[in-house]
Amino acid sequence: MKMRRVIFPLITAILYCGSGLPLRARPAENPVGQPLRYEIWVKLDHAQRMLHGREEISWTNTSHDAVPDMLFHLYTNAFKNENSTVMQESKEESLFIRARVKEGEWGWVDVTKIAFEDGTDLKPTAEFVTRDEPRHPGDQTVMRVTFPEPVAPGATVRLRCEFESKVPRSGMRTGYYKDSYFIAQWFPKPGVYEEGKGWNCHEYHANSEFFADFADFLVHITVPENFVVGSSGKLAGMVPDAAKKTATYTYGQSRIHDFAWTASPEFIKVEREFIGNREVTPQEYEETAGRLALPLEEVRLPDVKMTLLIEKQHRNQIDRHFKALRMALKYYGLWYGPYPYETVTMIDPPFRTGSGGMEYPTLFTAGTSVLKSRKALSPEGVIIHEFGHGYWYGLVANNEFEEAWLDEGINTYSTGKVVAKAYGPGEFGASFKGIPLGWFLKLPVYYDYETDRAAAINIAEYDPVVTPSWKFYNGGSYGANVYMRASTCLNTLERLLGADIMARVMRTFNMRYRFKHPATGDFIAVVNEVSGKDLKWFFDELFFNTLNFDYGVASLRSVEKPVRSLGVFDVNGKREEMTVRKIAELEKKEKPSRNDKIYVTTVTLRRFGEARVGIGVPLKVRVVFDDGSEEVREWDGQGRWARLKFEKPAKAKLARIDPDMIWLIDSNRANNGFRIETKRKGILKVAAKFMFLIQNLLLAAGSVS
Ligand SMILES: [Zn+2]
Known about the structure:
Blueprint: H1 4-16, E1 36-45, E2 50-60, E3 67-73, H2 85-93, E4 108-116, E5 127-128, E6 142-151, E7 156-166, E8 175-177, E9 180-183, E10 189-190, E11 192-194, E12 198-200, E13 215-224, E14 228-231, E15 234-241, E16 246-256, E17 261-264, E18 267-274, H3 276-279, H4 282-292, E19 304-311, H5 318-336, E20 343-347, E21 358-360, E22 363-365, H6 380-388, H7 405-423, E23 426-427, E24 431-432, E25 435-436, E26 445-446, H8 448-456, H9 475-497, H10 499-513, H11 520-531, H12 536-542, E27 551-560, E28 567-571, E29 574-578, H13 580-590, E30 599-607, E31 619-625, E32 630-635, E33 641-648, E34 652-657, E35 673-675, H14 682-702
The structure holds zinc ion (ZN).
């Protein structure tokens, strides 16, 4: 999701108001024919705002455990009443949007039947469970059924399930508005069985997304005949029913772990082709293969069918949408590996369904408004980000409940790089009464890594980046940590390792963990393997702890070195005292030339934060002197401070720690340089002030209570 509900509207509000191992693709380990398979029939009753569903699930126990039960997500029940975990957590945190449900607008899902294929009824064993701490009893988003006897390793269970669901008016990510529907997290869905640990099946939380197993899906969606449908997967056919004035669309897709769809009579549907060899030049293929140390054949991009469903009032932005999607398909594909599905569907979601900026396999939602400045790169940034989740979470399917940074942080980092490559920096998207100010004024432009950093550097003390999503201090800390702080740390890592090594790290991680569920430790192992270094310290300091990273120059001084010293000296067997007067007399006689003067320069460095660079990873310090010369030294950065001394025939002008700006995560860059006779140019001042403003607004977002 794009920066989630708390952070994203705020940023929107701010921005719009206002070693190289070979990286060969490994053969897929789960060939087609997943251990999990769904066939679902769902009918939308538009008048009643109801879904009537029937579901066949087949699940093979691939573990070595005998499995006694099955846990299901019933996400829609998050919007059933105020006792749901989402509603309780929202109240505890007093988040504005969520608990505001109007009369008659609650949504829910009821499993009316659940049985084995042979008819063995499991419904009497069904119960709701709440296991996450702190507990929120009353939540009904996780259901357990107990099998008559445990499912043996290798055995397959075939379940038949029927469900009724009231679509919430506007739940988080799912809902309706007038005639438009966006349907997500809607069907009873098993958790992920983890060998030796049981079912990983968390409740729906206010600050959390999802986790599920790869599956084959076949879904039949029946809607009123005038509705335009968009869906995960590939359209296999449509059967109209003239008598009932409905149409049934069948979509299928293998190797995906979620399935969402949308239906509205208001959409314009546009289809275009992404042709890999037309989008990428031969030189680009060669450059990519060279950088990744891969054979040319492995970086070639397949063709993809792109579908856009867009609201009629946004029709003049169709080309903008497709350009952003083409850029995303191109660069995610070149950098992280070929997109493995035939289709991608992009939705400009039904107005006010609360479903914008969200990712699902082979389908994502963006969101735009009627008046847009081209230079502000919105909706482009959201399109690129949400498509990017097709790689980070869609393919590399981390547990978003437990380690959200693994997709959100990596994908925010990736988004920034794609946007920069495809468009350059984006304009500060200020507007007045919905009218973009960029139409009339020249506004400052920024790269994502700069705005991400502004949001990331002051939240270190709240929570470690690696924290279960529902255990963050609040939505602000969740958002700023898993998106922007993680992304800023990855940009720092890139600067530390070099762009080529980092590119190989990301490629290896994506290709190796496609269709799997990696954890943070797997990412660190890939970083170490590909870089040939041990970077455990980097993650300990910046991902698993709440340590502020801040190195700086505390002082810089140059004083003339006296030729003679005061005091008593032994000269030819006699004691002589050198006094101020004597020195003055001697110097009058000798008249030392100006060029003989030597200056002692002292630079005092400090570690203001708790975080430390790794041992053997020193910080660079550059001192510039007024004769134009430069000296570069290193500091191991382990102590709280260090003092460097230089003796030169010139005074120092400027000292800077980390002059190449490797440590983007440094929370205060202003103290990194110390200048004698500071004269800042006006424009720099304005830019610095502006970033300070963004930081403060984001901080305010984090502490909304
Ligand atoms: Zn996201």
